[in-house]
Amino acid sequence: PMPAEEFGRKHAGDRVEYVDGEVKEKPMPGGKHGKVCFEAAFVIGMHVRGNNLGHMFTNDTFVKVPTKGDPERVYGPDVFFVSYD
User: Residue 17 is inside which H or E element, if any?
Assistant: First the structure.
């Protein structure tokens, strides 16, 4: 096991996530997936920006999502939002 910060430094730019103490490869999903991600980011992002709600991130941005059983879990979500609050 490694801390999430170390995982982020070692694997920046890699198509992986850190789950249950293991680095897990994520397959390259393809064009349809990319189109859906763009549409979701665009629609959500316009709302977030228009209402000054926070930050939007897309593919290849690691985010630590600790769980009770895995406090160092790191995902690379397709689209995510972080509120200013």
Answer: strand 16-19
* 28: pLDDT strictly greater than 90: no
- The region that residue 21 occupies, defined by phi over 0 for left and psi between -120 and 50 for alpha, beta otherwise, is left
Give the pLDDT of residue 55.
96
Which two three-digit tokens encode residue 81? Answer: 């939002």
DSSP secondary structure letter of residue 68: S
- At residue 52, the pLDDT reads 98
Residue 60's identity, in one-letter code, is D
Query: How far is C-alpha 52 from the chain's CA centre?
Result: 21
**Overall size of the chain counted in residues:** 85
Report d(CA 32, CA 49) in Å as an integer: 25
Tell me how far the alpha carbon of residue 12 is from its chain's centroid.
12
pLDDT average, residue stretch 10-26: 88
| Phi-psi group of 54: left, alpha or beta (phi > 0 → left; psi -120 to 50 → alpha; rest → beta) | left
